[in-house]
Amino acid sequence: MELQVLTIDGKVSGSVGLSPEVFGLEPRADLLHRMVRYQLAKRRSGTRKVKNRSEIRCTTAKAYKQKGTGRARHGSRRAPLFRGGGKAHGPLVRDHSISLQKAVRSLALRHALSSKFKSGELVVIESAFFESAKTKVLIGHFRKFECNSALVVDGAVLQEGFARAVRNIATIDFLPVQGINVYDILRRDRLFLTRSAVEALEARFK
């Protein structure tokens, strides 16, 4: 599997061979769905909480006498139907994360990479190196690729100039190869991998 290697300004600088075990799989929607669901559930904090009637500080005196008023029988002002009372069936602190086997997570990432390659949305660039650190200039380069949003994945160390230029663009994410994930791959129109990122990914799944 061969793919052209481009520079950041869209010029051809060579080609690279891609491993079929990483980029040549037939994408499975069920695996991608499970992985995205896993990621979104894991990022939820689960810290919302309300007080139920047992946690409200309030008088313990009976609101009014039991009989003779024509009103409903109430023994506590902490009941949910009173103002200032506890909340019924409100959110509590909990862990929203779900379990997913490591082998499935690894396979889902390879299927996400393969889906981008199969749909023609994978671009391999020589490097994510940018001297000027000017966002306007970088936007002009990305317009040549005709994409509204993109994920750029570099090697283990990010180049500071490129990172400074891209952080002002809301629709472009820039990650080291250690941070590549299924959700960010699928939520962007194009996936840009540097040569070093391709080598690191193939070594990771070897």
Topology (SSEs and partners):
Layout: E1 2-6, E2 12-17, H1 20-23, H2 29-42, H3 102-118, E3 122-125, H4 135-143, E4 150-154, H5 160-166, E5 172-176, H6 182-187, E6 190-194, H7 195-204
Parallel strand pairs: 1-3, 3-6, 4-5, 4-6
Antiparallel strand pairs: 1-2
In brief, what are we looking at here?
The chain has 206 residues and is an alpha/beta fold.
How many strands? Answer: 6
The CATH H-level homologous superfamily of the largest domain: Ribosomal protein L4/L1
N-C termini distance? 16 Å
Spans with pLDDT under 50 lasting ≥5 residues?
none
Please state the oligomeric state of the protein chains shown: single chain
CATH topology of the largest domain: Ribosomal Protein L4, Chain: A
- Would you tell me the structural class of the helices and strands? alpha/beta
What is the succession of H and E elements?
EEHHHEHEHEHEH
> Biggest sheet: strands side by side, in what order?
2-1-3-6-4-5
Taking all Cα atoms into account, the compactness measure Rg is 27 Å
> How many discrete domains?
2
Q: Identify the CATH architecture of the largest domain.
A: 3-Layer(aba) Sandwich
- Global morphology: elongated
- Proportion of residues in β-strands: 5-15%
Q: What is the mean predicted local confidence, pLDDT?
A: 92
Helix content: 25-40%
Helical region count? Answer: 7
**CATH top level class name of the largest domain:** Alpha Beta
For the biggest sheet, the summary is: 6 strands, mixed
